[in-house]
Structures are given as C-alpha cells and as structure tokens.
C-alpha cells in the first residue's frame, strides 16, 4: 500500500527499544510511522512538522507525562491510544476518555484499538 494511503501514526515512548519495536510491528500491519518521540518536546515538534492521523502515547515519559501531547491532539481532534504500566486512576485527567492499554500488551490488541479509533474517511 502506498504511504499516502496508510494511516500515519505518531509514537510517543521514552524507552527506545519499545518505541523501535512498536514502529516495526505497526509498519508490518500497514501503518506509516511519523516518528518515535521519547519526550514531549520531540512529540510536539514531530506533530507540528508532519501531523498524524492517530497517536500512541506512553503516559509516563520519565520525568514528564505525555499530558501536553494529549491536550494538543484533543484540540486538533486527533485520536490517540494511551499505554501505561499504571492504572487509569493514576493517569492525568487528559487520559480519562482515551482507550488505555496496560503494559505489557499484545500488538494485535493495540492494532485493533488503533483501527477502532481511526477516523472514517
């Protein structure tokens, strides 16, 4: 499938190995990867430069959370799926309405959730 027809995904994940693995797995499932961002600043820059159709947000990015990215995506009406090792009640309020997958998760479950959240064209 040409890149222009594939859903563009922004991955926000602070663990480089997890981010790389997610990118490889999702490309194998037909998604186009905008980039893998380990920080809020990098994610905001990638979104500003390239946009995305949907995002995957690791809630906890070490010393920061991805809440600013969730707010930006919500304002732009871009859906996202949150992934975390924490429970929903430990997540910032920006994630209350988002689908939440607990780490570790199966890639098939993530792919199914991404497809459910994708805007219908």
In short:
This protein has 121 residues and is an alpha/beta fold. The protein has four helices and seven strands.
User: Rg to the nearest angstrom?
Assistant: 13 Å
Report the major sheet: 5 strands, parallel
Quick check: average pLDDT?
A: 91
Strand content: 15-25%
* Poorly predicted regions: none
Distance between the termini: 16 Å
CATH topology category name: Rossmann fold
Order of helices and strands: EHEHEEEHEEH
Helix content: 25-40%
Oligomer: single chain
CATH class: Alpha Beta
Give the domain tally: 1
Secondary structure class reads alpha/beta
Number of separate strands: 7
Query: How would you describe the shape?
Result: globular
CATH architecture: 3-Layer(aba) Sandwich
CATH 4th-level superfamily: Response regulator
Word description of this protein:
- The protein is an alpha/beta fold and 121 residues long.
- It has a single domain, classed as Response regulator (Rossmann fold).
- It is 36% helix and 23% strand.
- It is built from four helices and seven strands; from the N terminus they run E-H-E-H-E-E-E-H-E-E-H.
- It has a five-stranded parallel sheet with strand order 2-1-3-6-7, with helices on both faces.
Secondary-structure map:
Elements: E1 8-12, H1 16-28, E2 32-37, H2 40-50, E3 54-58, E4 60-61, E5 64-65, H3 67-75, E6 80-84, E7 100-102, H4 107-117
Parallel strand pairs: 1-2, 1-3, 3-6, 6-7
Antiparallel strand pairs: 4-5
């Amino acid at each position: 499938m040409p890149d222009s027809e594939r859903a563009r995904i922004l991955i926000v994940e602070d663990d480089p190995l997890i981010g790389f693995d997610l990118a490889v797995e999702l490309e194998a499932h037909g998604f186009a990867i905008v980039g893998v961002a380990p920080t809020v600043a990098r994610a905001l820059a990638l979104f500003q430069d390239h946009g995305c159709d949907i995002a995957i947000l690791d809630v906890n990015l070490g010393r920061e959370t991805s809440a600013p990215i969730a707010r930006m995506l919500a304002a732009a009406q871009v859906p996202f799926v949150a992934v975390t090792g924490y429970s929903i009640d430990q997540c910032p309020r920006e994630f209350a309405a988002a689908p939440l997958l607990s780490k570790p998760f199966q890639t098939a479950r993530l792919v199914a959730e991404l497809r459910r959240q994708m805007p219908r064209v």
